[in-house]
Amino acid sequence: MLPLFFSGHRADVGATRASVSARRARVESLPGCTIVFRQAEERRKMPNSVVSIQGLKKEFRQGFFMRRVVAVGDVSFDVEPGSIFGFIGPNGAGKTTTLKILMGLVRPTAGRATLFGIRVPNARALRRVGFLPENPYVYPYLTSTEFVEMCGGLSGLRGQSLRDRARQVLGKVGMLYAADRAVRKLSKGMLQRTGLAAALVAEPELLVLDEPMSGLDPVGRKEVRDIILDERRAGRTILFSTHILSDVETICDGVAILRRGKVVVTGELSTLLRRNAQITDICLSRVDDSQLSELSKLGLHVERLGPNAVVRVEGEVRMREVLTQLLSQGYQVSEVAPRQETLEDLFVREALG
Questions:
Q1: 113 lies in which domain range?
Q2: What is the DSSP-derived secondary structure letter of residue 173?
Q3: Residue 300 in contact with residue 313, Cβ under 8 Å?
Q4: Same domain, residue pair 284 and 160
Q5: Are residues 82 and 14 in the same domain?
Q6: How many domains are contained in the chain?
Q7: DSSP letter at 121?
Q8: Sequence-ordered alpha helix ranges (H) in the chain
Q9: Cβ partners under 8 Å of residue 20, min gap 6
């Protein structure tokens, strides 16, 4: 009797599926419904996060005694589709190691990393990624054009479309004037631009950029920022690490701050920065070391700027109290400047505090 039961069960399921398919066919025949169903199916196939890193850890063994070194202790964050995500932290915090794990260049000790919902390393997922390493190596005997075309060829581009795309991205990064110059004759900034062109040539869905502004002058930095914004407008997702906090604050939607291999803050910038908090910088002129020591003993946040100093105070009531105290003690107040909290304030508080 058992086989008959399962046979009948399968028949019932088959009939039910056929009935559902018939009803769906009738609904899809209505104007506009086909598009709605297709969009719903695409949304179901699309992962919630382009990049997802959960509990990532990486340990190395160094020296004769194989001493354990923790490069990445506990890293978790997600990058949403179509966003620009900044990955920041002091030198040695583990940013580059994390990105290498994401690119399949280093295996993690623990945790998991996924691209487009696929666990890395995975060639199918990595084909959809453009990667600029921190120190891109470009074969010195090639020209910029030859190197970018080689990278495009490895990504499947061929013929005239490859040549046209290579010149297009070299023009975008400002390297068209030196496109036929040997790489060994390029400056650090020009090498960085060539590496960025190689990352862009295959029109990837995700850009992973490790210190993309490294070696660039202020004009070059602005041009790279504009390129990142253009790529986001084209529907791409960008994950990049940098030490230049003003760039992150200007263009990023979300951020993760790394400290000693662990993420201490992650989320949307609009949520993390306390825009409603009133912060006031009280600028003092001609402050000597003894006065600076006295200010520190009062529990004030003081920063020396040459012969001058800045006292940073949060809250209007506290600002009035501190200002009155400073004036009564004879300090020369040159400026009182209210402002909003910046990413630098958040970084110093969370990554260096």
A1: 51-272
A2: T
A3: yes
A4: no
A5: no
A6: 3
A7: S
A8: 2-28, 33-45, 95-102, 123-126, 144-154, 159-172, 188-200, 218-233, 245-251, 269-272, 289-297, 316-328, 343-347
A9: none
* Of the candidates 229, 204, 208, 226, the residue with the CA atom closest to the CA atom of residue 216: 226
Per-residue pLDDT tens listing for the chain (353 residues)? 333 333 344 444 444 445 545 555 554 455 445 444 444 444 444 568 899 999 999 998 887 877 888 888 889 999 999 999 999 988 888 899 999 999 999 999 999 999 999 999 999 999 999 999 988 888 889 999 999 999 999 888 899 999 999 999 999 999 999 889 998 898 888 898 999 999 999 999 999 999 998 878 888 888 889 999 999 999 999 999 988 888 888 899 999 988 888 888 888 887 777 655 677 888 888 888 777 777 777 777 788 888 888 888 877 778 888 888 888 888 888 888 777 777 877 777 766 65
Name the residue among 296, 321, 169 with its Cα closest to residue 234: 169
pTM of the full structure: 0.73
Tokens of 109: 């000790």
The answer on 193 and 234 residing in a single domain is yes
Sign for the CA dihedral angle at 217, 79, 47, 36 comes to negative
CATH number where 342 lies: 3.30.70
120 and 21 in one domain?
Answer: no
Q: 175, 167, 348, 323: which is closest to 245 by C-alpha?
A: 348
14 and 154 assigned to the same domain: no
3-state SS, residue 23: helix
| Coil vs helix vs strand at 163 | helix
